[in-house]
Specification:
Blueprint lengths: L16 H6 L3 H22 L8 H20 L3 H4 L4 H10 L14 H16 L6 H21 L4 H6 L1 H9 L5 E5 L2 H6 L4 H4 L7 E6 L5 E6 L27 H5 L5 E5 L16 H19 L3 H13 L3 E2 L2 E2 L1 H35 L7 H8 L3 H20 L3 H11 L18 H31 L3 H23 L13
Helix pairs in contact: 2-3, 2-7, 3-7, 3-17, 3-18, 5-7, 6-9, 6-13, 6-15, 13-15, 13-17, 13-20, 14-15, 15-16, 15-20, 17-19, 17-20, 19-20
Length: about 500
């Protein structure tokens, strides 16, 4: 039953957990272990054995991190961004930089993040990042450097909101999470003078203000050096309707002088059914759709047919030498495959579906293709997320125990024998029929939920002619599901385990 504030369960009110999360250094407590872990991966990546299945950098980054992220997104939300180690040097950058500029207005959208995502997917396959501890370590270092540089250059957290590919992935798929930042009482926000949740409560000089909080009551508000910065991604709490762009840093809760911010439990997946929660922008439409498509393309990249396809394209381009595909030939072929299957085909399919949907439903409203595509955009999230879960679960489940001998080996390399000799046969679930059944169940569940979201979106858009308007998008979703199932029935490389290396 909801309390007087309208919030059924506020995680920030749970004893001990809430106190730690609301503390001004609460985020640092979460970040420090992840910073230590990131530095350990970098160290082993640079100095350890250059065998992917025996190095902490590759096993930690490509097997365990990705598996744990999708579990966290599903069960709680954007916990990785909450404890993100890359924002620690960024916080240091804030102290030493005099930032006076905003991120360029033309780039305040998701196009840069879309490019970064595609670039990361491409580099992962072309450079075989999953097989190179050294390159994986450089990726982590580059992440630290990029986060620091962006924070020193711009006022807002531009790297998180407009650039970071990992954060962008988390933003999209945390929209179905059971936790979300919300205002306990929106009426309090209407009369709030300082809007500290977005503007912050930090001030070099002490500032004391008296706010009226309704019914003639007043509250003293103090801004000083003990205060915190406001939301880095510039979200105003009472206007938040999804987890999009929310890093769960909780600075809004710490800055609010009226204790009016909750990390509230909600019905999972609710935001996907809230049509008004999604911006009608092509960058958001393309982001969600191609993220779902790249879930399939990325999985396809670890199956035997992709090598045949790469060979054929490189041969047609004349980029082979003595019958062997050159490095540039592989890059060019991968680029064409990614562009065709990950971007052009899904984008064209959604544009065509929007046009067909308008014609079939023949609404009295003068909808544009963008209006229709935006309305159906949330329907691509459940299926897309299911594909990524099926993919990452494959790596995580087949290599879950790999980290044990890898860590033992790391200690032995540094003369520490406390944990004994590593058993390199430790891996995870080796019965691929079990994993295959799990993948099928997850994708089928995602497809069912996608169709339900699409049906509600169509009914909201076209009323009684909703079924006609639904058909084109249902066909696109069906095609994506069949492509995903066909991909997961192919033999997949058990990367990150001794069974592959």
């Amino acid at each position: 039953m909801a309390g007087a504030s309208g919030v059924r369960l506020d995680v920030l009110r749970i004893p001990l957990i809430g106190r730690v999360l609301r503390h001004r250094n609460g985020r640092v407590v979460l970040q420090l272990p992840l910073v230590a872990l990131a530095l350990l991966l970098v160290y082993d990546g640079f100095t350890g054995q250059q065998n992917a299945a025996q190095n902490l950098a590759t096993v930690g980054a490509w097997v365990h991190y990705r598996g744990l992220v999708v579990i966290a997104l599903l069960m709680a939300g954007n916990l990785f961004c909450m404890g993100c180690p890359f924002t620690v040097p960024r916080s240091l950058g804030r102290r030493f930089a005099r930032r006076t500029r905003r991120f360029p207005a033309r780039l305040r959208n998701k196009w840069v993040a879309i490019g970064a995502l595609i670039g990361l997917f491409f580099a992962y396959e072309w450079l075989n990042l999953w097989a190179s501890p050294l390159l994986t370590a450089w990726v982590i270092v580059a992440y630290f450097a990029a986060s620091l540089i962006f924070e020193m250059l711009f006022d807002e957290s531009a790297f998180c909101k407009y650039v970071c590919p990992l954060g962008t992935f988390n933003f999209v798929y945390s929209t179905g999470a059971p936790l979300q930042i919300t205002a306990k009482n929106p009426e309090v926000c209407k009369t709030c003078v300082g809007k500290e949740c977005v503007n912050g409560s930090y001030s070099v000089e002490t500032v004391i203000r008296v706010d009226e909080i309704g019914n003639g009551a007043t509250r003293q508000v103090v801004h000083d050096r003990r205060g915190v910065l406001g939301c880095g991604t510039e979200l105003f709490v009472p206007q938040i309707r999804t987890n999009l762009d929310c890093t769960l840093c909780l600075d809004c809760a710490r800055a609010c002088p009226h204790d009016n911010v909750a990390l509230a439990a909600r019905r999972p997946f609710r935001a996907w059914f809230d049509g008004g929660a999604w911006p009608k922008r092509w960058d958001m439409i393309v982001l969600v759709v191609i993220l779902a498509a790249f879930g399939i393309v990325n999985a396809f990249g670890m199956t035997p047919p992709v090598y045949t396809l790469i060979g054929g394209i490189a041969g047609a381009l004349g980029m082979t030498q003595d019958g062997v595909v050159t490095a540039m030939g592989e890059g060019a072929a991968l680029l064409l495959i990614f562009a065709a299957l990950g971007v052009v085909l899904p984008a064209a399919a959604v544009k065509a579906a929007a046009f067909a949907s308008r014609k079939l439903a023949a609404s009295k409203f003068n909808y544009s293709d963008r209006d229709v595509a935006a309305a159906f955009t949330p329907a691509f999230i459940p299926l897309g997320f299911a594909v990524w879960i099926a993919h990452y679960a494959f790596h995580f489940l087949t290599g879950a125990l790999t980290v044990v001998p890898v860590f033992q080996g790391f200690l032995l390399d540094h003369g520490i024998t406390a944990l004994g000799e590593p058993n390199w046969s430790l891996s995870g679930i080796t019965d691929l029929r079990v994993i295959g059944a799990l993948q099928f169940a997850v994708i089928a569940g995602g497809m069912g939920l996608s169709l339900l979201v699409a049906e509600r979106s169509s009914a909201r858009l076209y009323k009684r002619r909703g079924m006609q308007g639904l058909i084109p998008f249902a066909l696109v979703l069906l095609a994506m599901m069949l492509a995903a199932l066909a991909t997961f029935t192919l033999p997949m490389e058990m990367r990150g385990t001794v069974f592959f290396d």
